[in-house]
Design a protein that fits this description.
single chain, four-stranded mixed β-sheet, 3 helices, about 20% helix, globular
């Protein structure tokens, strides 16, 4: 039996956090998504359903993620240049994809692990997305993301093409 958990990222500050920690390193296997909690901290939804906050800006967390996973910026740029995409670049390592939901300079950008995506649908007339993600122990996370469905799909398709999936 699946347990469904609903999350509205626009109400992130109302979530009960499990922990604020420096002792967590996001990787392909332990996260579902990450986004800015505020300008100095990053929110992480882990694969096992925890709500964590790292006391570092999302840009710093992404830099560390790229370094830990040997994802050089020039390689990201080359992969996306090959398919003609110059904005909204994700992090690609083989078939692993950490995909942004909108422009990467947007304050509300969410990065998610594409292989955890179980479904998506347009809501609010296509101006928002409800994305479903598979978690551990049959958990299903339904997350409302403030981005247009068209943008969400374009960035996912670009990441898939760049990764060759």
């Amino acid at each position: 039996m699946k347990k469904t958990i609903n999350i509205k990222l626009s109400e992130l500050s109302e979530l009960v956090l499990d922990e604020e920690t420096n002792g967590f390193r996001p990787n392909w296997d332990n996260i579902i998504l990450m986004t800015a909690y505020d300008k100095d901290r990053t929110f992480i939804l882990t694969w096992d359903g925890r709500y964590l906050v790292l006391p570092r800006p999302i840009g710093t967390v992404l830099e560390q993620f790229a370094q830990d996973n040997d994802i050089a910026d020039y390689e990201r740029q080359a992969l996306y240049d090959m398919i003609g995409v110059h904005k909204g670049r994700g992090y690609i390592a083989g078939h692993n994809r950490l995909v942004p939901t909108c422009g990467t300079t947007n304050d509300g950008v969410v990065y998610y692990v594409a292989r955890r995506l179980a479904g998506r649908e347009a809501i609010a007339g296509g101006q928002m997305v409800e994305a479903s993600f598979r978690g551990r122990k049959h958990q299903l996370f339904r997350v409302v993301i403030d981005t247009s469905y068209k943008t969400f799909m374009n960035l996912l398709e670009a990441a898939d093409e760049a990764a060759g999936v």
